[in-house]
Amino acid sequence: MITALISAAAMAAASQTPSPMEAVAGDWVTSDESAIVRLFACADQPEALCGHMIWIEDPAWVEDRFLGGEIISDFRFDGGAWRKGHLTNPEDGNVYRGSIRLEEEGKLKLKGCALRILCKSETWSRLQSLRDLGASPDELVMDRLPSTSRALSVR
User: Fold this and answer.
1) Per residue in 10-31, is it b (16+ CB within 10 Å) or e — as a string?
2) Does pTM top 0.90 for this prediction?
3) In angstroms, rounded to a whole number, what is the distance separating the alpha carbons of residues 155 and 132?
């Protein structure tokens, strides 16, 4: 009887663990707090991770095509991280191979590489409040983007 209860409790705890996609889906703030990127399952490949830039502090900072555009594409979950996808640098349009790993609660580590040897890493934080960034909901490019199960919090 006790063994059955322990097994049931373990199964219930395991079922509450979010999938890798659920764990990273939502809105993320870049390390310098100049942009918000929404991560979600790619429309044409639901097992792959994609992301669109939905807000930038200074619109002159990037080309128009990147605001609301895809800057993260085709990442596949493998070995505890999202791998073999493409990261686009919205400042210059260059595309890099990369990886994305969910770190401690609320942190996401992105790594992009050119030629596999020239790499740069950046840590993003889960968006907590638009007001903390000096943004308002009407500034987000939300009408052109896939929705996620996580709502934006405005405090």
Assistant:
1) eeeeeeeeeebbeebbbbbbbe
2) no
3) 8
- Residue 124 CB contacts under 8 Å (≥ 6 apart), including other chains: 28, 29, 30, 31, 37, 107, 108, 109, 110
Q: Which residues pair with 108 in a beta bridge?
A: 102, 124
Query: For the segment 31-75, what is each residue's pLDDT rounded down to a tens digit?
Result: 999 899 999 999 999 999 999 999 888 877 777 778 888 999 999
What percent of the chain is helix, strand and coil (3-state, nearest 5)? 20, 40, 40
Tally Cβ neighbours within 10 Å of residue 141. Answer: 16
| Non-local CB neighbours of 69 within 8 Å, separated by 6+ positions | 52, 53
